[in-house]
Amino acid sequence: MTHNIHINNWVNQIKNLVNPNKIIWIDGSEMQLENLKQEACQNNELIKLNQDKLPGCYLHRSSANDVARVEDRTFICTKSKEIAGPTNNWMDPKEAYNLVYDIAKDSYKGKNMYIIPYSMGPIGSKFSKIGIEITDSIYVVLNMAIMTRIGKKVLDTLGESNDWVRGLHCSCNLDEEKRYICHFPEDNTILSVNSCYGGNVLLGKKCFALRIASFQGQTEGWLAEHMLILGIQRPNKDIIYICAAFPSGCGKTNLAMLIPPKVYQEKGYKIWCVGDDIAWLRKGKDGRLWAINPENGFFGVASGTNENSNLNALKSTRKDTIFTNVAHNLDDNTVWWEDLDKNPPSNAINWKGEKWDGKRSNEKGAHPNSRFTSPAKNCPILSENFNNENGVPISAIIFGGRRKQTTPIVYESFDWNHGVFVGSIMSSETTAAATGAVGVIRHDPMAMLPFCGYNMGKYFKHWIDMGKTLGEKAPKIFNVNWFRTDKNGNFIWPGFGDNLRILDWILGRCEDKIQSKKTPIGYMPFNQDINTDGLNLSESELNELTEIDIDLWKKEAEETEQFYKKFGSNLPKELDEQLVLLKQRLNIS
Ligand code: SAT
Ligand code: MN
Q1: Residue 253 φ then ψ, to 5°
Q2: Residue 322 has what pLDDT?
Q3: Which is the catalytic residue, given 170, 243, 250, 379?
Q4: CA separation (Å) from 265 to 236, 254, 270, 385, 420?
Q5: Residue 263 CA to ligand 1 centre (angstroms)
């Protein structure tokens, strides 16, 4: 399908390695994708759902041992361990190629080899990047067809160039012990074996658009971030765009698609979604920071998505969507997941493929990390700039995690370097998006711990340098925490649509319209500047949300000091200085 010699050589090399039955180039045509869907239904990879209720929708169940990203089996394979840094698993590239090629050898025997040319970002935009993924899984092809821009036109745009990312995925037999997700940022290559779970195998997503792209961004002077992008429209004003970085499973999709509370709707507020997971950020011609969403779809957590939590996401899933690991309602051939509604089906199959009575069973019908893969164009509030090749200008960057205590609902950094510090000290409770324990607090700087493709000390420095490049035009940096709990363990803040109340304060700060309180950790709102109209929130609850417990922050500073030690001389001095300043403000001698 292409004359690109670099692609053809690589395809040949991989073909000889994996030994497929047949080679199929994915041209991106509807007919080809339709045929693949039919084939996947015949071999039980997909179940066709009720086409009246859910047109174009399918259900997939993964293997029970393959339901989330595997961080402990994800490697950055660079010449030296130092390049990968202390927060990544490292493997010597030669060793990794040998190990993974050995596993991949002949693994396509009797299977087809699908070659997917894809573009991260609008095809042809100078901000976009191209990848080729080879896979033996139709499920992967169909998910990539939703999540990225695929097909012949991508190859036409690439022409003879060798500037593209190689990605090989082999399902093998899903052996956990032989599961490896290896990245070779120095050769723009990704190898993924023995998994079929999204984050491990949709190679355009975390593997390319974050791990490889962050490495590219460091050398090319831009940022690849784990961030949503949204626009806020207010009456008679230009739309303001912001980015927010939260760890997986902490509500990026919900914030990106939020529906304003009634009091804001009445005033004419509207939200426009540009992206829910990944942002590529560059300095634009006007000197401001501009963002594109490199993806073309949403790979969102199904569990917990409902009319109240995220109506726009729910609507996005009503057609042309692939559901993974949700419950299958046999009565009407639709899908169900926990908290979708209060009416679980009795006659159903759970995510493991077992008979399941949702009214009686104590077990969950859907896996907590069950997913929907939906085209971005399904989103009722998709921004008109979604396909804009220049992206959107960013006025504020927000960091946030899931913290029961310590972190207040919102605070603003004193300046860019302090903002980088705020991002670097982020901690959050782990979620079901990755294998391992859930609810454990860990450091997750900029929500990039699992996704930074190089030494995180250097990554912090790159952030500091971006601030220098942007100067006066740099966006303000904030931190939010929707997840503070009271003494009984209940969330204090209602979250979801009401988070706009906090975004509104942030916008006011960006426009220098609102005063703030200076505290040891940053600028904070006065209670009267948070709009609580129509909320059932008492003054004391608001106080609790904005409270800074100095003892807990002293502990936080000590933990940061320990965490920073990991980076040794790669930690930029600017962050060391910020830590000293924080300790001074907290009166730690
Ligand atoms: O599994 S994914 O990496 O695709 C989603 C997430 O964990 O953020
Ligand atoms: Mn994510």
Answers
A1: -65, -40
A2: 98
A3: 250
A4: 14, 17, 7, 22, 33
A5: 34
Q: Which ligand is nearest to the CA of 245?
A: 2
Closest CA to 575 of 551, 550, 557: 557
Neighbours of ion ligand 2 (CB under 5 A): 248, 277
- For ligand 1, mutation pick of 146, 248, 324 (most atoms within 8 Å of CB): 248
Residues framing ligand 1 (Cβ under 6 A): 69, 198-199, 205-206, 248, 299, 433
Read off the pLDDT of residues 310-323 as tens digits, 9 standing for 90 and up: 999 999 999 999 99
Distance in Å, CA 226 to ligand 2 centroid: 6
pLDDT in tens, 27-85: 999 999 999 999 999 999 999 999 999 999 999 999 999 999 999 999 999 999 999 99
Distance 583 CA to ligand 1 centre (A): 35
Whole-number pLDDT of residue 247: 96
**Residue nearest (by alpha carbon) to ligand 1 atom 5:** 199
Sorted by sequence, the CB contacts under 8 Å of residue 376 that are 6+ apart come out as 293, 295, 296, 297, 298, 316, 382, 386
Name the closest ligand to CA 68.
1
Q: Is 250 part of the annotated catalytic residue set?
A: yes
Cα of 367 vs centre of ligand 2, distance in Å, is 17
Ligand 1 pocket mutation pick from 66, 67, 69 by most atoms within 8 angstroms of CB: 69
DSSP codes of every residue in 370-438 = -EEEEEGGG-TTB-TTTT-TT-EEEEEEEEE---SSSS-SEEE-SSHHHHHHHHHT-EEE--TTBSS-S
Residue 109 main-chain phi, psi, to 5 deg:
-55, 125
Give burial (CB, 10 Å; 0-12/13-18/19+) of 439. exposed
Q: Which ligand places an atom closest to the C-alpha of 198?
A: 1
535 phi and psi angles, rounded to 5 deg: -105, 150
Instruction: Looking at the CA of residue 197, tell me the nearest atom of ligand 1.
Output: 1
| Atom 1 of ligand 1, residue of closest alpha carbon | 199
**Burial category of 540 from C-beta neighbours within 10 Å (exposed 0-12, middle 13-18, buried 19 and up):** exposed
Q: Note the pLDDT tens digit of each residue in 328-374.
A: 999 999 999 999 999 999 999 999 999 999 999 999 999 999 999 99
CA atoms lying within 13 Å on the CB side of residue 415: 11
Helix (H, G, I), strand (E, B) or coil at 344: coil
pLDDT tens, residue by residue, 554-589: 999 999 999 999 999 999 999 999 999 999 999 986
Average pLDDT, the chain: 97
Q: How far is CA 432 from CA 197, 402, 585, in A?
A: 13, 13, 36
The pLDDT, as a whole number, for residue 4 is: 98
User: What is the number of the ligand 1 atom nearest to the C-alpha of 226?
Assistant: 8
